[in-house]
């Protein structure tokens, strides 16, 4: 990979994982994310969960975007919860663009006093999403997306000031934005097979302050 000056510098948060055959807890990220960012000519920068000062580490990376990745529900990994919440607050304070994916969607929704509840039929089951507002401009009226989550958000449970940009066929929110804070989030996984066309445009639009 050749990183040009025009490449987005993207800080990715990491999930917890257990090594096979022996006891060793790790921070990790799927190769899918690295491959996707390389394909998009973005620079992936990884931020672990055990730092004493994650904000200082983040600032030293000079990022263009904070990407809150998926994997693990909020509450399953307290070290990750703490790290990501600190980073989220700092990004909001400094107006660093934020893109949340699946768990990242849930974390941002929680921060804005929203509620995520149990949902069925969304684990490894692709489905159609209807887009609205900014979502419709970027993705078109509807697309099929991948799906790997067991928590969802109804419109009435969406956090304060978050604007829906996508719904599934049963009315669950699948994407939102908060333009004045440079936030966007989706419940599908852009890095995996079955992601809709438009994810790269959404994030680049977010970083260019045109949402």
Structural account:
27% of the residues lie in helices and 26% in strands. It is globular and about 40 Å long. α3 (78-94) links the parallel β5 (65-68) and β6. The chain is built from six helices and 13 strands. Residues 1-5 have low confidence and may be disordered. It has a single domain (9-207), classed as 3-Layer(aba) Sandwich (Rossmann fold). The strands form three sheets. It has a nine-stranded mixed beta sheet, sandwiched between helices. The chain has a two-stranded antiparallel ribbon with strand order 2-3. A two-stranded antiparallel sheet has the order 7-10. With 211 residues, it is α/β, with parallel strands linked by helices.
- Using only CA atoms, what is the Rg? 16 Å
The top level CATH class name: Alpha Beta
Question: Which CATH architecture is right?
Answer: 3-Layer(aba) Sandwich
Low-confidence stretches at least 5 residues in length (pLDDT < 50)?
1-5
Tally of alpha and pi helices: 6
Beta-strand portion reads 25-35%
CATH topology: Rossmann fold
Intertermini distance: 29 Å
* Tally of DSSP β-strands: 13
Mean pLDDT: 92
The ordered H/E elements are EEEHEHEHEHEEHEEEEEH
Strand order of the largest sheet: 4-1-5-6-13-12-11-8-9
Main sheet makeup: 9 strands, mixed
